[in-house]
Structures are given as C-alpha cells and as structure tokens.
Amino acid sequence: MRIRTWLFLAFVFVPIAEIALFIYVGSVIGIGPTLVIVIATAFAGSWLVTRQGRQTWVRIRDEIVMGQQPTAQLVHGAMILVAGALLLTPGFLTDVAGFLLLVPAVREGLRGWFVARLASRWVVVR
Predict the structure, then answer these.
(1) N or C: which end of the chain has fewer CB within 10 A?
(2) Which domain holds residue 50?
(3) Total domain count for the chain?
(4) What is the mean pLDDT of residues 27-48?
(5) Is residue 124 part of a domain?
(6) Are 111 and 75 in contact (CB under 8 A)?
C-alpha cells in the first residue's frame, strides 16, 4: 500500500478513534479525571522527551568526537521527536504510541525493522 493511502487512513481513523476513546473514558471515569490524565501525560511526556532528547544529543556529539557516524542515534533522535509530537497531540492512542517510542528497546526494534526492510532497496549505513 502506498504511503499516501496510509496517511489518509491515519488522518481519518485516528481522530475518530481518539474522540470515541475520550467519550468512552469520560463516561466511565468522568470528565475531570479524564482531563487530569490528559494533562498528566502531557507533563510526563514533555519531561521524558526533553530528558531523552538531551541524552541522545550527548551521544550524537560523543560519536562525532570519536570519529564515528551517529546514524543510529540520529534515527533515535528522530523517533524521540515524533514521540514528542504524538504526546503533544491530545488523545489516548497517540499518547500510547508516543510513550512507546520513548522506550529505547522499542526504538531500536523499529530501527532494526526499517533497516532490514530498506536494506534491499537502498544502501543503508548501519
């Protein structure tokens, strides 16, 4: 499936799923606790993204100083940036995806999957 199709489906179905989850969670626990959860995840997410982003920046700088190409760290940095964008977007699904991208093992697994997938098409620097 083409990337344009995936993006279209994501732009249509993710907001619908997020709204449905907000309505469901709000009806189960109330609007106040639902808003507290959304605000708490925003604070926790911004703290984690800042912390991991700084750590990744330090690793990138260290690898450059040692004369190595920081390709893996640059990919991790890009995924942390995407995690931050997902965590800024209000919603439970986007928060789960954002927090998953902040787990280093998940990021490394995704990076490995992309490298394996793209290695047959392009020259991939590991």
Answers:
(1) N
(2) 3-119
(3) 1
(4) 93
(5) no
(6) yes
Residue 126 confidence (pLDDT): 63
Q: What is the DSSP letter of 89?
A: S
Which of 70, 86, 79 is closest to 114 using CA atoms? 79
pLDDT band at 63 (very low <50, low <70, confident <90, very high): very high
Structure tokens at 82: 């995407």
Please name the residues in contact with 114: beta carbons below 8 A apart, sequence gap of 6 or more: 75
Taking the C-alpha atoms of residue 86 and residue 97, their distance in angstroms, rounded to an integer, is 7
Would you say residue 99 lies in a domain? yes
pLDDT of res. 16: 95
101 and 83 Cβ atoms separated by less than 8 Å? yes
Alpha-carbon distance 83 to 97, whole Å?
A: 7
Q: What amino acid is encoded at 98 in this protein?
A: G
Give the C-alpha separation, 31 to 23, whole Å: 9
Please report whether residue 112 resides in a domain: yes
Asked if 70 contacts 60 with a C-beta cutoff of 8 angstroms, the reply is yes
| φ, ψ of residue 89 in degrees (nearest 5) | -80, 120
Least confident of 11-20, 39-48, 71-80, 117-126: 117-126
